[in-house]
Specification:
alpha/beta, Rossmann fold, 4-stranded parallel sheet, 4 strands, globular
Length: 163
């Protein structure tokens, strides 16, 4: 089910519950994914029908685990899943998206600007390049690497003793 003049499907009931008054921004993000996200190879065209429940809401539900005013780094952000979604759901978060590929960082920078997410930064590079330069209490990732490898990249971005 699409909404008027849209390429992305209409948001699910769960999307309305998770995003509340931020739903219009989430809808704009879904439109970006369904258009330029596909054009840039960030998601496959068959994923459009599953955008809300399989991707966007799936990432947004963990926002309730993050304390108010948290700082978050998202490793291997790609299409902004989950980092950009968390930033949409929670404008109080300071989110840094780390992505090594230039075409993806370009897309993320445009998305951040178009969505008006001034609390989001996009850094080009690999997570391990930022070890010792930045530390935050929360690191996220989705479909980036095996857990043992991902832990090796994330751990240096967390404060001493965090797990």
């Amino acid at each position: 089910m699409k909404h008027e003049g849209s390429i992305a499907p209409a948001p699910s009931r769960s999307a309305s519950e998770v995003f509340g008054d931020r739903l219009p921004i989430a809808i704009a993000y879904a439109e970006l994914l369904a258009t330029t996200g596909i054009e840039h190879g960030l998601i496959g065209p068959r994923e459009t029908a599953k955008l809300w429940d399989r991707h966007i809401v799936n990432c947004a539900v963990m926002e309730s685990l993050l304390p108010h005013l948290s700082k978050v780094i998202d490793i291997g952000s790609g299409a902004g899943l989950p980092g950009l979604v968390l930033a949409i759901a929670r404008p109080d978060l300071q989110v840094t998206l780390i992505e090594p590929l230039q075409r993806r960082t370009n897309w993320l920078e445009v998305a951040v600007k178009e969505l008006g997410l001034s609390h989001v930064r996009v850094w080009r590079g690999r997570a391990e390049e930022f070890a010792g330069r930045v530390q935050v209490p929360y690191v996220t990732a989705r479909a980036v690497a095996r857990l043992d490898k991902l832990y090796g990249w994330a751990a240096p971005l967390l404060p001493e003793g965090a797990s």
